[in-house]
């Protein structure tokens, strides 16, 4: 799963396709201003990977009902 933020719909379409082509489930999180909300998620991943010993072979998943 990979979140995507941006203000340019055409550019987002290109990036969405690129992400899907390499195997990610792409999630459009909204406009570029929302990207600041993704930074803490990345910081948590880094903390778990390197400080808590999980290593780099894990990811977060968005689950839907």
Q: What is the element layout, followed by pairings?
A:
Layout lengths: L1 E4 L3 H13 L4 E5 L4 H17 L14
Parallel strand pairs: 1-2
Describe the protein:
It contains 2 helices and 2 strands, in the order E-H-E-H. The chain has 65 residues and is α+β, with helices and mostly antiparallel strands. It has helices at residues 9-21, 35-51, and strands at residues 2-5, 26-30. The chain is globular and about 40 Å long.
Structure at a glance:
With 65 residues, this protein is of the alpha+beta class.
From the structure above, extract its key features.
alpha+beta; 2 helices
> What is the overall silhouette?
globular
Largest sheet: 2 strands, parallel
Task: State the strand order across the main sheet.
Answer: 1-2
- Portion of residues within helices: 40-55%
* Strand residues, percent: 5-15%
Distance between the termini: 16 Å
Counting helices, strands and paired strands, the structural category is alpha+beta
What is the number of helical segments per DSSP (H or I, 4+ residues)? 2
Rg, alpha carbons: 13 Å
Give the averaged pLDDT, no decimals: 95
Count the strands? 2
Low-confidence stretches: none
Please provide the ordered H/E string of secondary-structure elements.
EHEH
């Amino acid at each position: 799963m990979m979140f995507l933020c941006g203000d340019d719909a055409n550019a987002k379409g290109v990036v969405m396709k690129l992400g899907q082509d390499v195997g990610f489930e792409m999630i459009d999180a909204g406009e570029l201003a929302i990207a600041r909300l993704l930074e803490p998620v990345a910081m948590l991943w880094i903390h778990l990977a390197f400080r808590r010993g999980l290593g780099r072979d894990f990811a977060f998943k968005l689950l839907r009902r």
